[in-house]
Design brief:
Largest sheet: 6 strands, mixed
Strand content: 35-45%
Number of strands: 6
Strand order of the largest sheet: 3-2-1-5-6-4
Distance between the termini: 65 Å
Helix content: 40-55%
Structural class: alpha+beta
Order of helices and strands: HEEEEEE
């Protein structure tokens, strides 16, 4: 009987440890997504500020796009997708660039005659 009690405790401990790791992983993923959303807002603000700058003005920004997330540029907005949810940040100027997902980026934000172009280095 004593051996079965120890086995039951070991199984329960393994279940609780697994549950703890799952909770920690979900917390970390959520934190990365919140940070990504904040960085996207900051990027949109920087692009908005470039509307008043001269053609050829260039800025640089580092941003991390977590797995399962996307960063895109459409018309006059910076668009993010986190899971199945999308959000747009209007910038008030034509912005274009490639769609990015699941990677760390060193962005080059360049003012052009047609608006702002975002690329990577």
């Amino acid at each position: 009987m004593g051996a079965l009690d120890y086995l039951a405790m070991a199984v329960l401990a393994a279940i609780f440890i697994g549950f703890g790791f799952a909770m920690y992983f979900n917390y970390q993923q959520g934190a990365a997504e919140r940070e990504f959303e904040f960085q996207a807002q900051t990027l949109a603000e920087r692009i908005r500020a470039m509307a008043s700058q001269d053609v050829g003005a260039t800025e640089y920004m580092e941003i991390f796009v977590p797995a399962g997330c996307e960063l895109a540029f459409h018309d006059n907005s910076v668009t993010i997708k986190i899971g199945s949810n999308s959000r747009s940040f209007p910038v008030g100027i034509q912005v274009s660039g490639v769609e990015y997902s699941g990677q760390k980026l060193n962005l080059i934000i360049r003012r052009s005659e047609d608006g702002v172009y975002v690329s990577t280095s």
